[in-house]
Amino acid sequence: MRSSLLLPGALLVLGLTSCSEPPPPPPPFHAVVQFRELMTWVIDPAADAVWDSVQTIMTEKGTIEKFPKTDADWAVARNGAATLAEAANLLMMDGRARDNKEWMTRARRLMDAGEKALKAADARNVDALFDAGTDMFNACDGCHLRYQPPDTKPGAAGAMGTTAVAATPAPAKK
Asked: Which of 22, 40, 48, 126 has the greatest number of CB atoms lying within 10 Å of its CB?
């Protein structure tokens, strides 16, 4: 008789424990580096790779047109563009996003500009790559004007300065 009483009790305990929900899994994403490091180590170098790939530099000695010429040059521009487009996702992660409206819109603009640069690099289109670089600059500058703390803006002591140079696209060479 005793064993028959234990069995229903054990089933009751088993039933009660199986109704409780397991703990939620950890979030699928988490920031590994600080925001400033993400900007310095990932986003800035990726943007610079695109910006540096197409330039018109005017000096006292004349004008220098710079644009990708080799497979390696185009790969640098492409890799920078792809990194920048994907890094925009990192800006939208919980813990990094400053708000769910303007911040997300600005990060999306950066992603779109990076995608545009990636397509231009894949097509080896110098003019389109330059235009995408302009879109990237506008996306970055707009965000920096709105969100960058005053003590870290270019010209401030200890700032992560970026230098922008207005230029015209280099003529497409085939």
From this structure: 126
Half-sphere exposure of 48 (CA within 13 A, CB side): 10
Separation of alpha carbons 36 and 116, rounded Å: 25
Assess whether pLDDT exceeds 50 at residue 161: no
> Model's pTM, two decimal places?
0.73
Q: What is the CA radius of gyration of the chain?
A: 26
Whether residue 13 has pLDDT greater than 90? no
Which 3-state string (H, E, C) describes 69-96? CCHHHHHHHHHHHHHHHHHHHHHCCCCC
Q: Do residues 81 and 54 touch, judged by C-beta distance below 8 A?
A: no
Q: What is the CATH number of domain 40-152?
A: 1.20.120
